[in-house]
Protein 1
Amino acid sequence: MKVDTITKDYVKDVDIFADIFNYYIYRGRQIVQPEQLIERDTVKIALPYGADGAMIPVQRFRDVQKLYVAMTDGKMEYVLYGIENQSEIHYAMAVKNYLYDALEYAGQVEETAKSHRKEMKQRKLRGNTDSGNSGKVPETGEFLSGFWKEDKLIPSVTLTIFFGSEKWDGPLSLFDMMDVSDPDVLSCMDNYHVHIIAPALMTDDEIMKFQSSMREVMLFIKYSRNKEKLNEVLESNQRRFQKLEKRAVDVIEVITNAGIKYDEREVEVDVCQAIQEIREEERQLGELKKSKEAARNFYEMGIEIEKVAQGVGYTVETVKQWLGLLDDSQ
């Protein structure tokens, strides 16, 4: 739950959210502006028919969804952008996201139908005195569906972000989840593709197209299991890693367990220094382990404690403590 909460809060920020879709859709061009994004309710409820004809409530929760509103060629255009965060590979992601989009469109149709029914009821109460499109009498098909010929759906784009360092090996389309080779059957079906951002599937040049701290988050996660390469990344991107926002550091830490620590009072974190401190602590712990092993080996060879202590560079009392030779009463 902690991983989900931290990653969700991170991508929910309008600056991060806008940067993610600018990267994926516009290849880094700054088209989507944070002020053009409107928060959306992520709860989706539909009532499909069950096998026995009963109505079954279905409830799904998107991680993050925002409405993008822009003026294009003199008219308003709308797109629904949704994000699903994954810290583990989901082998049915195509179906999961397909369901989200389908529920979104079903919800739009239902809301449109409600709006039309409400308008017709109000018009009836007013005695049909309105004129123009608001006084339209729907055709049979329009009335049955609740969706007029001129009504349009708002596009829904769902993007999956995999916050893992391993390569995503799950299906990336609906067809990938099936074992169908008959071209005639496939020609009657619509495929659904998973739009995914995964560090291991991206080149460094692609990651560098992010303008927000998503760049550092993706780079760190990608090389988190390769100390040598991670050090190179930290050095070549030192300026940005030295002043990384805390929420980005929290994502890095909860995903990689790197051991990064920082003062809660700080606004920005010097990740380079934090990693150096971790490396130094690891080095010291490694040397201590070697000293303990050497002390035990020398002692088992019959060498006096005083000489053992002198050889490993620690006090006699410390070496005795390592070997369990101290009297508990002392």
Note: The longest strand covers residues 75-86.
Protein 2
Amino acid sequence: MKKHEKVLFQRYKSLYLFLIPAVVLALVFSYLPMVGLLMGFKGEMLIGRYGPIEAFLRADWTFEHFIKIFSDPTIGKYILNTLYISILKIVILFPLPVFLAVLIADVRNKGFSTFVQSMVFLPHFLSWVVITGIFKDLLAVDGPINSLFGIDVYWFGEPAIFPWLVVALNGWKEIGYSSIVYVAAILSIDVSLYEAARMDGASKTRQAFSITIPMIASTIITMLIIRLGYLMEAGFEQVYTMITPYTYDSGQIIGTYVYEISLGEMGGQYGLSTAVGLFNGIISLIMIVSANYISKKVAQEGIW
């Protein structure tokens, strides 16, 4: 510890006591459960015959689960589905909250601005079960959407449409809520910059691209890095409620697969599900570290 760090520690040591609850919670709920990752290196565990600890100790050490991840084409297909849906969400949905925040921040009527924010934030607080139920009725074969356009499509049963439907519903639910952080960043910008731009004759669009977006670039980069860390997370709750037997081929993702082999129809494969989860975590760690490194090299911005 450097000298100035020691001085700061001595000065504020009483405040460090407030960190104890957070540290304890992190150890108990974040780090202690990581011992369970060892299950990914164990063979078949006869939990029904023995207790969990005894079954774990009796099982043989093996790498068969990780070999299966890289050799089983079915798991490979689920990984590709996860990447495809997640990349679509990043490419299509990530920029939209930024532009929505720019529009909201530019509304001068505070009452109307509050109303708009409330309307676009509201879907976030609805569960995926409710949202999926609503849209299954709207997009049913005999539903109002098909009737309006005179078509006969089972939207939730079309494998080619399903990934795009996942992206569309996720955007409808989360774009408004995701814009909150950008609205806060925009409101912290010095208003004199906009006044100077208006005096120079800059239009609203020019102000947005020349002032607003550059001034919140660090926030955008930080949120993008965090989002890339969840590249292997395509939205378990959403996909689980939306998927149908017709869309398994294009809609089954790693999250739903892990649930099925651990607690679902093919339950009990705890070693394989742990191995798949560990593989997911390693890929996410690599992505967030790489994205942060590239960001610091290119834009001199990063999250650490």
Note: The first helix runs from residue 3 to 12.
Protein 3
Amino acid sequence: MKPVTRFVALCAVFGIGLFTVSTAQAAGTPDLALSANASSPLYGETGTVSMTASLPAGEPKGYNLSFRVVLPAGISYAGGAAFAPQVINNAPTSGKTTLIFSNISDLVANSKQGVDFNVTHAPANYEVGQTYGISYEAFVNTDPRIVPAFDGSGVATPASSTGNASASTTSTIKAIKITKSSPAVKARSSVVSTTTRRSTR
């Protein structure tokens, strides 16, 4: 099956920045689809990531859905996921981090499963205006007895999945937020009363 390119046009303003949305490619059976979003966080603050795998109508069931996420150097997993990942440091190459979310769900046609989590960036590695990219992969198998497998570096074993999809996002470090405050100036007013005396002659 030829790779099918899907582009999801979505741009939402979130509290910590603008979200970037990936272009996904899928291959195999079932024809798995993958979309991903990543915020552009403020300098020194936590960013948010979300990825969703889905199956269109007419596709066979996909079992044992697993995700693989590769974070670049200076970007770290910061929790927040409902499914705790396996964290592999310095993989697939030095400085990078691979996250494996293994066997979290099964998918049927017209269904989807997502994972959200947080990331942090090392201020020493990233200045305001710099960007970082995250790559994502999703895997399923038409055989319920086979779970997508990964080697010690977090690289997928091709024979362990029959359907897969990939995506990527790019985030930009936003300027630091500065909050200023000043003492409240209280206006004071005085009331002057005047008494007029009348004299009686």
Note: Residues 4-172 form a domain with the Immunoglobulin-like fold (CATH 2.60.40.10).
Protein 4
Amino acid sequence: MADRSGKGTLVLVYSTDRIGPQIEALRENEVVDDNGQAETSIEDKTNDPMAVILLNQMKNKYRKQSILFANMIRDEFIQVDGRPSEPVREQVLFVLDHTAMPSVLVETGFINNHQDEDYLNSEKGQNEVAASIVRAVEKYRGEVEQAAK
């Protein structure tokens, strides 16, 4: 019988096919004035063609940043730790459903693969996984700060 268990890592980003949850996240993060009123409601923004274009640009910006960050994490796993990793994938994920910022989901291994399970249960494996993610965060932060200058 063939071993169908995965091996290595998988980094996922939110698929932009569903805009509803992202609009809800934007609504939750609206800028409010001193009276607690939204400066411009999301409903107004989604009915205004110019606002829709800007929302789509913002959505695509987060998507691009998420993909950039996801690839940085994947590269750390492959190049530094020598771990196999699937290509970055876009997927509709509940855990990333209401994000209005760059975001990724990192699958650090597959517990149905005995080698991955042993690695993830070991102190060495946990330290390597955490260090890879931290290095990627630091690299991403550096690129974002450099771009802001």
Note: The chain has a mean pLDDT of 80.
